[in-house]
Amino acid sequence: MTDFTLHTAETAPIESRSLIENSQKAFGRLPGLHAVMAEAPALLEGYQQLHRLFAEHTSFNADELTVVWQTINVEHACHYCVPAHTGIAKMMKVDDVIIDALRDETPLPTAQLEALRTFTLQVVRSRGEVTDEQVEAFLAAGYTKRQILEVILGVAQKVMSNYTNHLADTPVDSVMQKFAWQKKQTSAA
Question: Which residues contact 129 (CB under 8 A, 6 or more apart)?
Fold first, then answer.
């Protein structure tokens, strides 16, 4: 596997240095994902922007943001993002029942959250080629057309991070290691 540098403000390309400062201010530290992304300033800037837009400017509440993020992280088997978003969910005061159900791929506590997970998986697995019936089921669960499009924003953000972590084998940040995770193996039928 190719070794990727975990950049610091001193080693990063000049164009990434202010972005690293933004990450350090936002998180109180430099997340490993951001340290890797700093190699490509446009990627780090794009990721930061998508994260801000998805977290702060969509109509999803903390539980729903977590469902979208973790559904994608688990589907993509992202060794870095599942622990990171477990910690983020706890900071956002998301109930452990939701956090554990997402990590363990077990039923969520409400039909509406389960509908959000199902639709997010359908978008990811079909690369956006969801059926009319799948869209109607999502809308019938109480979601909106706006939220259909907001799921796409969440998918775009998570593709950037999950794929980066797969390629770079980003080490899990020490503060998130207590939330280490591995995808459950499914047995052949």
Answer: none
